[in-house]
Amino acid sequence: KQLPSWWKDGVVIYQVYPASFKDDNGDGLGDLRGLINKLPYLKSLGIEAIWLGPHYKSPRKDEGYDISDYKNIHEPFGTLEECQELIDKAHSHGLKILFDLVINHCSDQHEWFRESRKDKSNPKRDWFYWRPAKYDADGVRHPPNNWRSVFGGSAWEWDEATEEYYLHCFVKEQPDMNWENPEVRQAIYRDAICFWLDRGLDGFRIDTANFYSKHVDFPDAPVVAPNTPWQPAADYMTNGPRLHEFLREMRKEAFDHYDCFTIGELPHTPRLEDILSYISVEAEALNCTILFDQMDLDHKGGQYPLMRTSWKLSEFKRLAAFAQQLAEPKYNAHALSYMENHDQARSVTRFASDAPEHRVASAKMLATYLLSLSGSLIVYQGQEINTINAPKDWDIDAEYKDVCTINTWREIKEDAEKNSDPSLLERGREGIQLTARDHSRTPMQWDSSHNAGFSTKEGAKPWMRVMESYKEGINVAAQEDDPESTLNFYRRMLALRKEHKDVFVLGKFDLHDKENEQTMIYTKTSQDGSRVALVALNFTSEPQAFDVPSSLKDKSTGKLLFSTVGGKSDGKLEAYEARVILY
Ligand code: TEU
């Protein structure tokens, strides 16, 4: 079978979060019309594809990851006709377009679940995981096991009417669909996948792609958090015994009928052999994956998902090198890298510095890193204008909207009170300020007008507070006019990536300073070995010495491609400088 070609050599994908990209009709939520009008902007960046976050009909308990109708659009975002127009106009700009595919769970308002919960004999009863309660010696009712939902509390919800629990790995309004039932799988292929590919869509970013097969004997998870009954259960919720079978079937029955690209999100999958078993060409399952370990380095260390953990640059680099292996021809797979998305706070704040004097250099340094990696890449909206996290003086209860933040913050407050531990509260607040998903969900900053140009209609109130940083040069219009802006740096770097495709897109990645905690020095070598790009990054606010790797020392041909701070070609990197030398 011939492989699809449009993504094979690597593509740069721009992720749009529909609620916060551009509000055209003035209701405070982004919409499809707003996005359609911004296609020329996206084209001007030099990206090749768009991934649109969930725009389907949804009660939005988890911002659209709870879909109540796969074949329809969330009304405030627009209509089916506008969606078709978006696909067609993206194509006429030469851009591919991917949607989000959220099929581990649906909304509790989806027709399938409404039927399922009606009564035990309903033909769709078995479309979800219904299980009886457990009763203890005192006759007290308990859920079937101790699994903690990813967003807090038990992963089971009691249904009063039919007196059984149903499983929800995420919030209770996101019931998990029973993939063990072949009718469910066929309905998903038909409604959620083929319906859109038939309309010209180019592929999907597949949400929680390793949750479809779980341990359906539902054993208790080991107790790691003794102060709560609900234990982290990712090992049981993901990568279950039938996952390969399900992914292959979905590929064969749906994706293989189209020239489409599939990016599967694989949380909790750190091992190379497991990853390859899903994404190598021989696996005939997914085309590539979104991995988590590198971007989770500074959080997810314990019981609460947003708690800050200390991270080391050496670990960051090790995980970068690990993921870049997937681009090596010997693995017959495809690599994909990212630094931000709608689940990850802003990279400048987390991995470099968002201080006013450092944020532009930081963003260019991180852009040099990301855009010099082999394979496909995702750039998240706002990343190209060095957007930073929301300021620390934002009141968590008033301004943060994400259900994960809200639940976690509630849990932390309760536990702090219960255990008389005010330091827990402080650590919780600090964690949220650094890593909450809300930071990447604030409205896109287009210009310096009211609401940063996101919602321009008179009286419009954006669904999330707009960050004041738009007044400090973090907006598209201001950066358009400045040749030295982060925005124009992204454009230049994306062009260089194409011009030197042999090293940047297809080259072999070799890390040269594994143990160093201040700098990241690596080479990208073309497959035939004839050309090398040396990338030197300073992750600190102090000047750092760097050594040209010995393999390059005797090459007299090294030519400075660029330095992000106009650096001289001496042996020191300035604060947050990125320098690239071509051999
Ligand atoms: O995220 C999958 C996932 O595992 C998340 O729990 C992630 O670890 C978490 O957001 C970090 O706090 C996907 C979507 O990207 C996310 O937006 C959804 O909320 C989730 O699935 C449920 O659909």
Distinct bound molecules: 1-O-alpha-D-glucopyranosyl-D-fructose
What's the count of strands? 24
User: For the terminal residues, how far apart are their CA atoms?
Assistant: 38 Å
Taking Cα atoms only, what radius of gyration do you get, to the nearest Å? 24 Å
Task: Give the class from helix and strand content and strand pairing.
Answer: alpha/beta
CATH class of the largest domain: Alpha Beta
* Percentage of β-strand residues: 15-25%
Number of helices: 18
What share of residues is helical?
Answer: 25-40%
> Judging by the overall fold, what is the CATH architecture of the largest domain?
Alpha-Beta Barrel
Quickly count the domains: 2
Placed side by side, the strands forming the largest sheet appear as: 15-14-12-5-2-1-17-16
Question: Are there runs of 5+ residues with pLDDT below 50, and where?
Answer: none
What would CATH call the homologous superfamily of the largest domain? Answer: Glycosidases
**Main sheet makeup:** 8 strands, parallel
Q: On the 0-100 scale, what is the average pLDDT?
A: 96
Shape: globular
State the CATH topology of the largest domain: TIM Barrel
